[in-house]
Amino acid sequence: ETGVTQTPRHLVMGMTNKKSLKCEQHLGHNAMYWYKQSAKKPLELMFVYSLEERVENNSVPSRFSPECPNSSHLFLHLHTLQPEDSALYLCASSQGQGDYEQYFGPGTRLTVT
Amino acid sequence: DQQVKQNSPSLSVQEGRISILNCDYTNSMFDYFLWYKKYPAEGPTFLISISSIKDKNEDGRFTVFLNKSAKHLSLHIVPSQPGDSAVYFCAAINDYKLSFGAGTTVTVRA
Questions:
Q1: Yes or no, beta carbons of B41 and A106 under 8 Å apart
Q2: Between B48 and A53, whose confidence is greater?
Q3: Cβ-proximal residues to B54 (8 Å cutoff; 6+ apart), any chain
Q4: Residue B82 preceded by cis peptide, ω within 30
Q5: Residues 55-74 of chain B whose Cβ lies under 8 A from any Cβ of chain A
Q6: What phi and psi values does residue A84 have, to the nearest 5 degrees?
Q7: Which whole number is the average pLDDT over B69-96?
Q8: Chain A CB within 8 Å of residue B4 CB
Q9: Residues of chain A falling short of pLDDT 50
């Protein structure tokens, strides 16, 4: 496998559920990112990890909890979400935190019912 | 507050003609600008970029122009091809953070 992969591609969950999104990059990059894209809105940066350490938390509610166990994997743990959290969640990676070119995964389409 | 704006949500162009996509920004601290292209069910892919110290960058059929005084950049695609039909995102960087526009959907008509 190459590039950045994300699982699952689609997820429907209730407001009381707990689920996790997974991202894996096969590019040997050191920085990973979570973005949220709501309908008709720009991508919003949520979290940035560099060398497995979180370097940015962009005022994201605590019901979203990221985890980066190693430089190739990134998770987004979800609990007690709201319907307005329904969106496309995109993972990206780059060689380093300051590198301009980011490589994106295909995203997870999340629907909260 | 949206710092990068793409005011045209869609653009339709005939095959072989020029596509011009526009982007405006408000933050004068942005030092690098990028265009990403996105097909349905795929993540955005990097297309072309330009440093704030330049006013033009060309890569094959794609050219990006930057007008810093107007805080405006544009992407020219010429000639447009059916495979160019996609959503195009303008993005700008300050302190390693990417700020995206909402995207412009380009449809190339045969």
A1: yes
A2: B48
A3: B66
A4: no
A5: none
A6: -70, -5
A7: 95
A8: yes
A9: none
